[in-house]
């Protein structure tokens, strides 16, 4: 028997505003798409709409850049207020060169600009604003999971995903910032292959793989569909949330 | 209209031996699984069976470690012959600490042990052997694409994939080492969102995203199914092979 996993991007998710509940939007879009959640469904949601629903906006005209932010803005050519926001969301600056500001986000992610987004964020009141990552993406995923369970009766998996650059490869891929109801990291340390040798691959980033695959149909920009339902395959492994995917900086093997 | 992408792992691919042609095995497995290739199919093949079919084995008893290999073996605790093989496949050693040898592969990949695999490689003749990456994974993908086109009449996409560790995240994900017939990298530099702002995400690693999603059903070890067919969605973008995914080391933004 083969194995199947299907990703379906839902058309018809409306623009999300602060305070909007995502679960009813998803349930309505599922119905409009003639689809439904099942026991093995994983709902992959773009970070952007989670942040919007949680009101994670910052108004740039309220931000007074620190001296350090101004210095990094001069180096990178970025808006000093955005740099100040980035610093406020980060523990460490890893790289600052023209056009590039890579930091370690307070939640451990190594990423450009602390994941702060200026593109495609409507600003109805004429003020410039930026969108930060959710305060706690695992908690966001758990809350959406519970809301979907109440609305549909299905205890599905949920992933909050975002696109990340990689150090040695061109192009972004999506990873999982937060999750609930799935084994975000599958740990097979100690397992052996059929010849009795210990497996070389022992930890699999399941949530990141699902987030990456979902992003293919999620798209971005004008054609983006920020909710994708994965269904058909759920590994038998203990549930872990996405904290398990963040490598402690002192165990980083690459530098 | 939503968008759908489905991954199907094919049961019944036999053990691959040097000189075996993969296309007939895939065509037979498709038929046995009641499946078929379509105009938007992408056949994702594990690097391991491509390397086996190309006979990319090295016999450890033929390898005489250099002084540098012996030194790195002492540091890492790895077999000096494997280290010698790793060095022969690499341009640069990025990190050597106990249990870890990260190199820049001759094709530009930054990875552990130059992707050389000792697990799950049967050794009928009683000699220890290791399995190297294909000589040119893009060429392997192109050859498989042509063989599948001749066998089925469908000009499908092909990806040769392997699992990679990441510097700042736990667990492996699959990436694309080689591809043919798809836009491995989608470049949207210059595009704007519906508010007229330039998109922040401008290059998408499509082949890596498909490889990552396929790996969810591909599995590994005893339960592994080394061929996965993705179907339902092919982006409209110019074809590029996987050389486009390797970031030149002098433009690495992270260190």
Summarize the structure.
The structure is a homodimer of 255-residue chains. The first copy, chain A, is of the alpha+beta class.
Largest beta-sheet characterization of chain A:
5 strands, mixed
The count of helical stretches of chain A stands at 6
Rg of chain A over CA atoms, rounded to whole Å, is 19 Å
In CATH terms, what is the architecture of the largest domain in chain A? 2-Layer Sandwich
CATH class of the largest domain in chain A: Alpha Beta
Structural domain count of chain A: 2
Number of β-strand runs of chain A: 12
**Which fold name corresponds to the CATH topology of the largest domain in chain A?**
60s Ribosomal Protein L30, Chain: A
Protein name (chains A, B): Coenzyme F420-0:L-glutamate ligase
Organism (chains A, B): Thauera mechernichensis
GO molecular function, one term (chains A, B): coenzyme F420-0:L-glutamate ligase activity
Keywords (chains A, B): GTP-binding, Ligase, Magnesium, Manganese, Metal-binding, Nucleotide-binding, Potassium
């Amino acid at each position: 028997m083969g194995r199947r996993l299907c990703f379906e991007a839902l058309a018809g998710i409306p623009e999300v505003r602060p305070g909007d509940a995502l679960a009813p939007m998803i349930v309505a879009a599922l119905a409009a798409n003639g689809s439904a959640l099942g026991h093995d469904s994983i709902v992959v949601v773009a970070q952007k709409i989670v942040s919007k629903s949680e009101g994670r906006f910052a108004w740039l005209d309220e931000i007074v850049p620190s001296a350090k932010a101004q210095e990094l803005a001069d180096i990178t050519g970025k808006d000093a207020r955005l740099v100040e926001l980035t610093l406020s969301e980060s523990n460490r600056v890893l790289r600052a060169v023209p056009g590039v500001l890579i930091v370690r986000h307070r939640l451990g992610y190594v990423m450009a600009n602390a994941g702060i987004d200026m593109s495609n964020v409507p600003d109805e009141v004429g003020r410039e604003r930026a969108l930060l990552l959710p305060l706690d993406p695992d908690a966001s995923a758990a809350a959406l999971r519970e809301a979907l369970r109440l609305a549909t009766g299905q205890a599905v998996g949920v992933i909050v995903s975002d696109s990340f650059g990689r150090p040695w490869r061109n192009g972004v891929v999506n990873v999982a910032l937060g999750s609930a109801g799935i084994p975000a990291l599958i740990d097979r340390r100690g397992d052996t292959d059929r010849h009795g040798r210990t497996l070389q691959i022992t930890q699999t980033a399941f949530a990141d793989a699902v987030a990456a695959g979902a992003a293919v149909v999620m798209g971005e920009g004008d054609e983006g569909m920020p909710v994708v339902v994965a269904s058909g395959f759920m590994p038998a492994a203990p549930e872990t949330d996405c904290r398990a995917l963040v490598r402690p900086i002192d165990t980083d093997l690459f530098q």
